[in-house]
Amino acid sequence: MSEPTILDTAARPTARHAPVPLAWRGDGAAPTRFHRGAHPPYAIRWFGSTALLGHLRRVAASIVASQAVDTRDWMRPERPHELLGHAGRVLKAPVAEAGSLVERLGRPLWIDFVADTGDDRDVSAAVARLVFSEYAPPESHDGEILPRGDILLFGGDTAYPVATGREILRRVVQPWNEVLQEVGTGGRRRVLLGIPGNHDWYDGLDGFARLFRRDALVGMLAEWEAGRAHRAQKGVAGDRSRAALVRQLHLDELAGSVDLIRSAYQSLRAIVRGGTVHRVARLTLRGYMPIQEASHWALPLAPGLELWGVDRQLRRLDFRQRSFFIERRADRPGAR
Prior knowledge:
Number of helices: 11
Number of strands: 10
Helix content: 25-40%
Strand content: 5-15%
Mean pLDDT: 80
Structural class: alpha/beta
Distance between the termini: 39 Å
């Protein structure tokens, strides 16, 4: 028998907060059928009109995100020790002056990493349940538990087909906040970090910044979060019979196309009339605090070890970002 190579995290905990046992999945056959979710927004039909219209926006984004006009040009990233200070305060680190986050915490540091998150709503919620669970590894003799991370890091393409504030809200923030309300925060806050992918750049990083950029009113965030999490769950409708009809008639594809056209029309109308387009002001994940001021950053994790968030835009790094990391490497030539 060949050695098992895949971990199966499908097992459900027996209690609300019990660790999920990690069991070997082995070489079992892959699923032969796929069912779309029961709640909108549904997965993007990548050969349909919604995806086509979404990718057409890339042309405009590529023109804007050029050397002539670059959204990152206004960014002033936090110095690594400043970002470290923000992270330490969010995690209530007992040591305030140490040179790395592990030293400030005085314990191991855990990081959750996800990417390509916001497509089908039900799949997004399922991923959230995996991220926010605790796990008991196989063959653990000392009761070791793999806890939920102190840092939640998004690795790009936060939502599809274009990561606007509205799509991030519908496809990530709302379903994830519902899961977070069920599992709770454990009475503590955690750090939220992100780097953008090409689908974030198709929106010029507008939606990305609304989720990951540090809130200027950070002191008031705790009071607002409860109300926002509650409002985010309103209007989440749709049963399986309606979902079946939508899947068969591709009405969600048509609705998505109309939505993109309406958004483009509203933007054009606002330009011609000198008006404004109303957008989601800020996006918040329950119990998580964004700490970055730019799409790129450097965080000292442990002595001699750093975590770098690099933004490749649609093609490459910009000059300011290259200068930022070159300077950081020169400051700590021995760090990994």
